Amino acid sequence: MIKTSRQKPCIFVLDTNVLMHDPSALFRFQEHDIFLPMTVLEELDRNKRGMSEVARNVRQTSRFLDELLTDASHAQITSGLPLNNLELSGNATVGVTGKLFFQTRQLLSDHPLALPDTSADNTILITTLALQEEHPDCTVILVSKDINMRIKAAALGVPAEDYSNDQVLDDVSLLYSGEAQLPDDFWDHHTKEVEAWQEEGRTFYRVAGPDVAAWYPSQCLFLDCDHGFEAIVRRKEGEEAIIELVNDYRAQKHSVWGINARNREQNFALNMLLDPEIDFVSLLGTAGTGKTLLTLAAGLAQTLDQNLYREIIMTRVTVPVGEDIGFLPGTEEEKMTPWMGALMDNLEVLTQTEGGDWGRAATEDLLRSRIRIHSLNFMRGRTFLNKYIILDEAQNLTPKQIKTLITRAGPGTKIVCLGNVAQIDTPYLTETSSGLTYVVDRFKDWPHSGHITLLRGERSRLADFASESL
């Protein structure tokens, strides 16, 4: 972890993977200095080609370095380049007083343990050891997202840390859940401040009191009692809020495309998915909690029955769990089909009509005409108007990628992010640095977004037992 309060001045040696992950890492160390070994520059050069996120980050790092080096003499480079000379959006260099040092000569260590100097990692370690010996008055720290690199550094006596400046939270258990349980005596303490009314068949309450200050817009509230009470925060100002009773989609008469909520969290999810005033919804949950099924049912109801959206667009990150299956033939949609097994499985549930095989085939043809499958690779530069966008497996996205996707939304578009932060397949992403965690935390104060964490699996008793025991 990057610590800013230290007794001795620090020199942070950055591994290549840190800059591949976050180009702005150059400006995240405040008053401390940064050292870039020549091997790091060579690795950046080897990875700059291509259209992947890593290649884009490498090119952005190179642009940052090029701007810092502009009009700098060799003497200035040797003495260190000020990192606060670069103008970045959002005042990213405010408070940055450290300098950037490049390796300008060969550094050799007298460490008794010999390392083969053929690999880039070992070259960086040798350089860090030599730097440590040259600057005994400073704390030299290697920053790497490679666990094995940090293990090797520890074996050599080199302080090593993970780059965690991109972490949204210190612990994923602190992530906003989207719901709050009210105390049993809530109404006893708030009855005097409550104002109730009905509007177009909906029931609202105006509530004031100290508990209200901790609520968020669109947060789901419930009382765990016999008669039950489930509501959603519609507006909040200081210690006063307007809350609305939610619809009960557990009742058979309120089914959504033949689907009913089976628990409280699913009921909250359907209320947010079917609310046209909520433009962004994020659903977290383990396998079998119903994320995809609920989202598809709500999307079909609003696209085919209510005509709120023109079509449904579904996309996901193509990160394989096992070995890659290689290149796939066909169009963009045909290439994405193997990755969309969840979509096909849930469409089977939603197309169980009484018209037999012919009726089912007709329904499937109708649905396929209104559901589009797109790859994330072709989202840049697009604007989606009046679309219902489902972003599956969003935990595998970086914060930058998820920002790129959400900013594609035009007027009348709704985006639903689905994922499980416990199942991340992207290298160097963790539960606390995932784009899904990032967007849940950043959107919780916006009144036109909603979030809920689905807790109970409803797939089968076998799946539930496997989730708990394996």
Write up what this structure looks like.
The protein is of the alpha/beta class and 470 residues long. It has 2 domains: 10-161, Rossmann fold (3-Layer(aba) Sandwich); 173-469, P-loop containing nucleotide triphosphate hydrolases (Rossmann fold). Helix content is 31%, strand content 19%. The chain contains 15 helices and 18 strands. The protein has helices spanning 16-21, 38-46, 53-69, 74-79, 120-134, 147-155, 186-190, 264-273, 291-305, 332-336, 341-350, 356-370, 399-406, 435-443, 461-469; strands at 10-14, 33-36, 81-82, 99-102, 139-143, 160-161, 179-181, 195-199, 202-208, 220-223, 229-237, 240-245, 280-285, 311-316, 371-373, 387-392, 414-419, 449-454. The protein has a 6-stranded mixed beta sheet. It has a 6-stranded mixed beta sheet with strand order 7-10-11-12-9-8, with helices on one face. α13 (399-406) links the parallel β16 and β17 (414-419). α8 runs parallel beside α9 (291-305) and α13 (399-406) packs across α14 (435-443).
Question: If you consult CATH, what is the topology of the largest domain?
Answer: Rossmann fold
Name of the CATH architecture of the largest domain: 3-Layer(aba) Sandwich
Beta content: 15-25%
Spatial gap, N to C terminus? 30 Å
Determine the CATH superfamily of the largest domain: P-loop containing nucleotide triphosphate hydrolases
Q: Strands of the biggest beta sheet: in what spatial order?
A: 3-4-2-1-5-6
Q: Helices and strands: which structural class?
A: alpha/beta
Helix content: 25-40%
Q: Count of DSSP E strands?
A: 18
Please outline the major beta sheet: 6 strands, mixed
Identify the CATH class of the largest domain. Answer: Alpha Beta
The number of helical runs is 15
* Mean pLDDT, all residues: 83
Radius of gyration: 26 Å
**Number of domains as seen in the coordinates:** 2
Weakly predicted, low-confidence segments: 1-5, 319-325
